[in-house]
RNA sequence: UGGGGUGUCGUCAAGCGGUAAGACACAGGUCUUUGGAACCUGGACUCGGAGGUUCGAAUCCUCCCACCCCAGCCA
């Protein structure tokens, strides 16, 4: 794959890691983890984190664990676990036997909580949710201490044990860390460690009715796994003092370093689980793997190669600035990748019938055409040619503007891999006045690259033989939203959805070599774009997804919309 | 009007006191049987703003401004 940046990535995280290596902070170890919560599908924002965590581990000779951060039974399920596993694998990373679940640590976490209670650093609070919120204070006012804050260790132990035993109603008690209700950092105002939930957990079923909160579970899970660098996104910066507090108070052997980086924002889409769920549930898209979705499942179905995504994640680099990445960069990585490895074939999306008057009726030729003109090692296939062809409707204009140099009345162009043809007649539909069929003549001396006496032609157009080509359905995708940042402005981001993000064309014609292309395989339809076979394809219909268009300086120059 | 972060080209982003890397985008050009690809060229007299320190500041100091995050028994 084309790789422009050959030097290994270097950023503030790696800089910190190298400092730790120099000062022997972790005995030379580098161990990371990717900790998704299995309550939704992974998207390209997660890919950034996956690439960072697995990439760093590989770079420094360490390991990266895959850990399901499943501490909230509502919404989490095995289907999501399976999809996460599939997606991370697809991206190209492996974790061997290091697939862990926070839910596997429930007993250990419980014991840690007991330890904290014994130390007088945690207490059972019996305020209700509204009261807790009220006691917490606000951004500008300090909180007030809970009336239950000074229960004895014995009482706390007893109550916590009974919470676990299921003696109390949901919401009646929580376990809280005893820190500082006046802290300017709200995270430190006696944060909740455990809450009672009678919802069954997808892995532990009804074994537990108390579940640990993120702040308590995460740092300890990291410690249990001997993680050295716990990389997370910026919004957890406020939580770092708490991350450190638990580990310090519990005096654990392994105390990882939490490091925060800016999450990915990509133009013309949204990258938040909550909003993606909304798109799926409101049927704005066909599902999690709709090719317009920024989910890894969607991108896989769309035909985005995983190594292009990895390259993209490396190129956007890692920093702490809130940023909105230009989709053009993603598209560039995709084109760079696909340009190198996609086989070239011919397909006509909007067919226009073209008859070559001086080509013998019934005659057929088969031309051996390379799958990749720049790379002959990719082989070739036979492309049949005959008297009646289909060309792209937009490759002909009856009254061409100055800079249009494709086919027009009296004009000559080359057929890709074939002859020069000249348009001699235009037949229109008498009712609509639309161009219905073109008549041309061909020059037998001009086959495949030959041109007598240096005769030149301005354009080369693609085509398929009418009788030999096969029908196909093509799905054209455009950006999901009309604006770069759908979260800015209107209260409902869905108001910015691009109504034309999917266009299905059922009357396409593709060259016969595509007849048995397997789902997922990627091609360049010459002059049109990159496409892949959709799993919806069957013996009856071939369905292609447009991965993306080719760069198109003509449509840019003519100010015309992409086909 | 608390606390935590961030502000360098249109978009990302290096820079860590010695006189503004790189990528994408954009513009122009070469080449070409894909108006594709490849290749060449061009662009921040300036680093959120204002002061200050220094021979020298994007980098240090002071003040100001803007934006993001935190008041879930979510993560």
What does the model show?
The chain has helices at 12-22, 44-59, 78-91, 106-118, 129-135, 153-165, 214-224, 240-249, 273-281, 296-302, 306-315, 327-341, 553-558, and strands at 31-34, 63-68, 99-101, 122-125, 174-177, 192-196, 210-212, 229-233, 257-261, 343-345, 347-348, 351-356, 364-370, 380-386, 388-392, 412-415, 420-428, 435-443, 460-461, 463-465, 470-477, 502-510, 522-525, 529-533, 543-549. By secondary structure, the chain is an alpha/beta fold. Among the domains are: 12-265, HUPs (Rossmann fold, 3-Layer(aba) Sandwich), CATH 3.40.50.620; 350-469, Ribosomal Protein L25, Chain P (Beta Barrel). The strands form six sheets. Strands 10-23-24-25-21-22-11 form a seven-stranded mixed β-sheet, covered by helices on one side. Strands 19-16-17-18-12-15-20 form a seven-stranded mixed β-sheet, with no helix packed on it. β17 (420-428) and β18 (435-443) form a beta hairpin. It is elongated. The model is unreliable at 1-6 (pLDDT under 50). The structure holds one RNA strand of 75 nucleotides.
């Amino acid at each position: 794959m084309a790789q422009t940046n050959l030097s290994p990535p270097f950023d503030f995280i790696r800089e910190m890691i190298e400092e730790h290596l120099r000062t022997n902070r972790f005995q030379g170890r580098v161990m990371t983890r990717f900790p998704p919560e299995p309550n939704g599908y992974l998207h390209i924002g997660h890919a950034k984190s996956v690439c960072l965590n697995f990439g760093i581990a590989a770079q420094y000779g360490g390991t990266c664990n895959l850990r399901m951060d499943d501490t909230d039974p509502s919404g989490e399920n095995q289907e999501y676990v399976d999809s996460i596993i599939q997606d991370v694998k697809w991206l190209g990373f492996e974790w061997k036997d290091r697939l862990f679940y926070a839910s596997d640590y429930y007993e250990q976490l419980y014991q840690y909580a007991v330890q904290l209670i014994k130390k007088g650093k945690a207490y059972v609070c019996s305020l209700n949710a509204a009261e807790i919120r009220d006691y917490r204070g606000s951004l500008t006012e300090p909180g007030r201490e809970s009336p239950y804050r000074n229960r004895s260790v014995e009482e706390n132990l007893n109550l916590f044990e009974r919470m676990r035993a299921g003696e109390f109603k949901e919401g009646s008690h929580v376990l809280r860390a005893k820190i500082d209700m006046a802290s300017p950092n709200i995270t430190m105002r006696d944060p909740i460690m455990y809450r009672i939930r009678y919802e069954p957990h997808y892995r532990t079923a009804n074994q537990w009715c108390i579940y640990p909160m993120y702040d308590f579970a995460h740092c300890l899970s990291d410690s249990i796994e001997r993680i050295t660098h716990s990389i997370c996104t910026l919004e957890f910066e406020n939580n770092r003092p708490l991350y450190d507090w638990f580990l310090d108070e519990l005096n654990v052997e392994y105390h990882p370093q939490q490091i925060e980086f800016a999450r990915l924002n990509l133009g013309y889409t949204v990258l938040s689980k909550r909003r993606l769920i909304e798109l799926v549930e409101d049927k704005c898209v066909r599902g999690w793997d709709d090719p317009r979705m920024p989910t890894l499942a969607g991108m896989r179905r769309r035909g985005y190669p995983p190594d292009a995504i990895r390259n993209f994640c490396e190129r956007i680099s890692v920093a702490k600035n809130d940023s909105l990445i230009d989709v053009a960069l993603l598209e560039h990585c995709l084109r760079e990748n696909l340009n190198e490895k996609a086989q070239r074939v011919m397909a006509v999306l909007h067919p226009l019938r073209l008859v070559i008057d001086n080509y013998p009726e019934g005659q057929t030729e088969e031309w051996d055409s390379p799958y990749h003109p720049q790379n002959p090692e990719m082989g070739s296939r036979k492309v049949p040619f005959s008297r009646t062809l289909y060309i792209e409707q937009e490759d002909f204009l009856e009254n061409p503007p100055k800079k249009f140099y494709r086919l027009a009345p009296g004009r000559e162009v080359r057929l890709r891999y074939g002859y020069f043809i000249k348009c001699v007649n235009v037949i229109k539909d008498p009712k609509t006045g639309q161009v219905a069929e073109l008549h041309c003549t061909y020059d037998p001396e001009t086959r495949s690259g030959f041109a007598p006496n240096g005769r030149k032609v301005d354009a080369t157009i693609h085509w398929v033989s009418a009788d030999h080509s096969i029908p196909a359905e093509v799905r054209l995708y455009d950006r999901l939203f009309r604006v770069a940042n759908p979260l800015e402005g209107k209260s409902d981001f869905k108001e910015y959805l691009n109504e034309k993000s999917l266009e299905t064309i059922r009357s396409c014609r593709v060259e016969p070599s595509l007849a048995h292309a397997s789902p997922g395989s990627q091609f360049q339809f010459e002059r049109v774009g990159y496409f892949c076979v959709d799993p919806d394809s069957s013996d009856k219909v071939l369905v292609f997804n447009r991965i993306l268009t080719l760069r198109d300086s003509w449509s840019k120059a003519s100010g015309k919309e992409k086909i």
